[in-house]
Amino acid sequence: MINDDVEERLREALRMHAAEAPPGAALLSTVTTESVRRGRRARLATLSTAAAVLVAIGAAIPFALQGTPAPQAAAGGAPATPIASPTSSTTAAPATPATVALVESTVPTSVTFPFSPPAVSGYGKPTVMLTAGRATLMQQLGPAGKGTATMTEYHTRPPSPTSKARPASATVGKKPATVYEWRWSDDDPTNPYTDLQRTLVWQPDSTTWLTLDITPARTAADLVTYAEKVVAGGEKAQSPFAFKLMPSGWTVDNISPASVTFCPPGVAPDPSYVNKIAVMLDESPGTEPKGGGQATQVQINDRKAWLTSSDEGQTLLIPVAGGRSLLLQIAARALLPTDVLLRFAASITVTPAAQVSQG
């Protein structure tokens, strides 16, 4: 399991440093956990946008690696087919949503990181995800508290972690590399988290750049030692949900073990849930409304679901197999017409890889 102790120490720092989090920061699980915790309180519009955790992983549950996609289980235990005319017992009252068409989904069924991490005794199983549109891999380095490594893939050279980051030359397998030393307070002097951080940037092949961060921070030599044990081959993780439909013109920017996020047009990819639709597997059975606001019972295929609306957005809770529920959190900027939302939700299936979100 990803290092919960590290997450706890970094959560507050990330929250305060929302806009400046550097690319590849090994803080992925922290921001995700914070996003879920706040989102679960229906604070969709004010959720902190820390980039870095560079998705939403629920409570940062490991994303089980799959050699091939496992058979998919439909929400509610039956094939989830779009419904032509969803019905509801009453009319929900969200803000006026834009007209949106549903199209065939292009959501990936799996996420692949193009390199494999060191195969060292005591190191944890890799965790693969899509974060802010980039493939990311995390690995726990020994028992809890020993550290977590995060690698992020780029196709052009990534920018400096902060405006004041200090670069130093290094080599990884005889190839040139750069180690940046920086602090979270570099671009925000009021940020109390001032511990020194290090990020390694190198180009393992002609088309790929990687960043490596280890938290707690290690020496430059430790970063290079880890990087030199990274090998070609790759790791794959199955997506937690399968989608038959998606809103036209929207993009998917985060796929984690416990959630998938959709950005409406005009919303740039980032690691948060802000201004998006987040799809999660919830621990509740879905038989009661979730969150504050006006609750409306709606029909999703053969199941009764709950649509709750407030000034901050909506939540849609649909009972599924195993005593859990499919949870859609819809920010105010990401509202869909009710009939479109229900058809979209009806097209979602839960895969065996899905992990329950925690928050």
Dominant shape: elongated
Radius of gyration: 20 Å
The level of helicity is: 10-25%
Order of helices and strands: HHEEEEEEEEEEHEEEEEEEEEEHE
What is the beta-strand fraction? 35-45%
Number-wise, the strands total 21
Strand order across the largest sheet = 4-5-6-10-9-8-7
Low-confidence runs (pLDDT<50, min 5 residues)? 1-95
Structure classification: mainly beta
Largest sheet: 7 strands, antiparallel
Distance between the termini: 16 Å
The chain-level mean pLDDT equals 78
Helix count equals: 4
Region (Disordered): 70-93, 153-172
Keywords: Membrane, Transmembrane, Transmembrane helix
Transmembrane segments: 44-65
Topology:
Layout: H1 4-16, H2 28-39, E1 73-74, E2 102-104, E3 110-116, E4 127-131, E5 134-140, E6 148-154, E7 166-172, E8 175-182, E9 197-205, E10 208-215, H3 220-227, E11 231-238, E12 241-243, E13 245-247, E14 251-255, E15 259-263, E16 277-282, E17 294-300, E18 303-310, E19 313-320, E20 324-331, H4 338-346, E21 348-350
Antiparallel strand pairs: 1-21, 2-13, 3-11, 4-5, 5-6, 6-10, 7-8, 8-9, 9-10, 12-21, 14-15, 15-16, 16-20, 17-18, 18-19, 19-20
Helix pairs in contact: 1-2
Region (Disordered): 70-93, 153-172
Transmembrane segments: 44-65
Keywords: Membrane, Transmembrane, Transmembrane helix
Quick tags:
7-stranded antiparallel sheet; 359 residues; disordered N terminus
